[in-house]
Amino acid sequence: MERQIDTMTFSVEQANKIMATQCPFCSVQCKMEVVEDLSGSRPAYQVTAIPNKASEGRLCVKGMNAYQHAVSRERLLHPMMRKDGALTRVSWEEALEAVSSRFTELQTKHGADTIGLYGGGSLTNESAYLLGKFARVALKTKYIDYNGRFCMSAAASAGVKTFGIDRGLTFAMSDIPMAECIILAGTNIAECQPTLMPYFTRAKDNGAVIIAIDPRASATVSIADIHLQVKPGMDAALVNAMLKVIVDEKLTDEEFIRNRTKGFDAVKEHVSSLNLEEIADYTGVSIELIRKAAIQFGKARTGMVFTARGVEQHADGHMAVRNFLNMVLATGKIGRAGCGYGAVTGQGNGQGGREHGQKADQLPGYRLIENPDDRAYVAGVWGIDPNDLPGKGVSAYEMMELVHGGTIKGLFVMGSNPIVSNPNATLVEEALERAEFLVVADMFLSETAKLADIVLPVSAYLENEGTMTNLEGRVLLRPAGRSAPGEVRHDWQILCDLAYSLGKEQYFPFRQSEEIFNELRVASRGGIADYYGITYDRLRKEEGIYWPCPALDHPGTPRLFGERFAHQDGLAVFQQVDHQSPAEQPSEEYPLYLTNGRLLSHYLTGVQTRRSPVLAAREIENVLEIHPLTARKHRLEDGALASVRSSRGTVIVRTKFTSAIREDTLFIPMHWGDAQNVNRVTNDLLDPNCRMPDFKTSAVRIQPLAEYLLEQKGRMTN
Ligand SMILES: Nc1nc2c(c(=O)[nH]1)N[C@H]1C(S)=C(S)[C@@H](COP(=O)(O)OP(=O)(O)OC[C@H]3O[C@@H](n4cnc5c(=O)[nH]c(N)nc54)[C@H](O)[C@@H]3O)O[C@H]1N2
Ligand SMILES: Nc1nc2c(c(=O)[nH]1)N[C@H]1C(S)=C(S)[C@@H](COP(=O)(O)OP(=O)(O)OC[C@H]3O[C@@H](n4cnc5c(=O)[nH]c(N)nc54)[C@H](O)[C@@H]3O)O[C@H]1N2
Ligand code: SF4
Ligand SMILES: [Mo]
């Protein structure tokens, strides 16, 4: 049963272990050195930023303290299996045997597609690639998707449609200070990618005008010259108005439109027919500000547009992004220095994680599972018959619905905490409780792992060697600094072990992450995200390489679209966007908009950051950002507990008064579970183009907690 794996071994007694690594959190992937000193009575740690081309030697507070969760006593150190209702320690042998026999049993009874796999953007490229291969080759199920569906899908699908390719930034970060005008739409870089802020302040020092679009005056908005405080969900409409001004003021780049794009006439005709007053009314932004922003962007010689989840996490997120791309194209601001579009990718490997096959419709290198040529190529690399490859599955939340309905009976979660991070979390929790067999691979007993039948302990960033692709499309090698504690294994190792138990070891012979990467290089070769020319050796020497990199002597591609776009005809595609208002509009019962997002000190569902004492202490509980005038109307004091309720559920949070938010909008961070989980309230409506949930617009009602509890009690006694 035990297989031979080459793992790095380190002497435990060795004092002052120096670990060169990368932060496990966001998409910047800041490089750092962690020194572990075991000579005293207690281990001591020192963290120093390593200068490099992406973060330039900066770290934010999360990176500085990331070692704390990795060395936490709460780390899972051995596999566990539910026995008599309780998770109980078992050997790897017993755990792996149980997983493979239960999966086989379920598949024999209900068919291959009864098993679902759910991955994440924290996984290395090697593990993400292998998870996709494991689903298709070892389990032959079509059901695989990952948490990046909630993160990047709107921008990714928009990039593919408009440009023919999806890479977070179409340029290297070093281009940012060359931009004369920068639009930051629904992106809170100051809290979410803090070490990037100096690129923007440098642009500002060079005279750039910064335009922020956000319902809140966030920390990022504080560097803006113009703030368009849009109503949640109204970005597409706002951009239509800006485009109208750009067209009316003749600020379009006609030569660029003629030579490099198609479809502009329809967009022009559409925006020309629109009424600015009406748009100002339903976006909540004055005509004066719309005009000012549009003219600044239109007249600038160089400029960039950045979008993130504020624009994208809506039922029309895809179209909203496409409208921003329309504006980039209409003004010819792409493919040259100081220009371009940036989808500010979220997770550490949010970029690489979406390129190599974790997505329902995808094979490595952005190949498509429904395309016969792509199937034949990848099947060839994997040594299987293309007819044995399953078809495409469904998106992450839809997979949860299938678990809820009983179509998917066994679920394997690797690198996500779906019962906290999915919309309409109550349904998802119910689904996972109903699942016949739930396996979770994690470093901690997350809210999701607590429900599992089997929990498999995985290595943390300090222990797991592999490549990560940052938001620019720059592939970086993260070395392992220490051996994994206890009986912990790497994600990719677990997949190989399981394949062995399932009798599929011939397809998973890997003993090191580099061997997996070498297969990934070939599997991605000739695809859109072509990694063929990137090797571990090169990554060690060159400090990161931008894909596409099709040959060993290719330098990589920092800036895209200099000559042509990635569509066959080389042209970018305009898309007319008829804006739509959020499905849930404030009503008498639910009179306010609720949006949500992030705080500087915590990361996603907080499983890791709440286990870092320094980070946990910075924000100990969830908060409700609310305008004081709104709060007064609803009888709420500052710092009081409140209930926030939608038609789906309720979250309990403490109020924090701020005049930085629109009066009709509330904001709650996403970092807490259970009663403080904002996703009990959020909307599970999905974007028809990319299946992104409508996280950022729900209609809600707020009450002081005591009032809410009395009401609930009344309901129960009636
Ligand atoms: N500290 C921290 N950093 C992180 C993360 C984290 O959890 N914590 N997560 C990482 C990940 S995975 C991601 S995806 C990124 C996310 O990074 P961001 O997308 O920047 O983060 P959010 O806070 O979700 O949303 C950004 C902004 O959108 C605004 N917003 C809300 N609704 C709307 C709207 O309808 N229109 C517009 N224009 N704006 C709106 C919010 O007020 C917020 O300021 O961050 C990454 N970095
Ligand atoms: N309301 C609302 N909901 C949201 C969002 C929002 O803005 N608003 N944002 C969405 C976005 S953008 C995202 S990305 C998702 C993210 O949401 P999740 O997918 O739930 O992400 P995490 O909370 O990071 O959960 C990751 C889990 O994997 C574990 N983990 C970390 N690294 C590894 C690893 O290398 N291997 C393994 N096996 N496990 C690991 C962690 O301990 C943790 O338990 O949430 C989405 N949900
Ligand atoms: S969270 Fe992001 S910005 Fe902060 S140190 Fe980590 S990678 Fe860098
Ligand atoms: Mo994300």
TrEMBL record:
InterPro entries: Asp_de-COase-like_dom_sf, MoPterin_dinucl-bd_dom, Mopterin_OxRdtase, Mopterin_OxRdtase_4Fe-4S_dom, Mopterin_OxRdtase_prok_CS, Prok_molybdopt-oxidoreductase. It holds the Pfam family Molybdopterin. SUPFAM superfamilies: ADC-like, Formate dehydrogenase/DMSO reductase, domains 1-3. Residues 16-74 form the 4Fe-4S Mo/W bis-MGD-type domain. Its cofactor is Mo-bis(molybdopterin guanine dinucleotide). The keyword Iron applies. PROSITE patterns: 4FE4S_MOW_BIS_MGD (PS51669), MOLYBDOPTERIN_PROK_2 (PS00490). Keywords: 4Fe-4S, Iron, Iron-sulfur, Metal-binding. Gene3D superfamilies: 2.40.40.20, 3.40.50.740, ADC-like domains, Dimethylsulfoxide Reductase, domain 2. This is Assimilatory nitrate reductase catalytic subunit. It comes from Paenibacillus glycanilyticus. The gene is nasC.
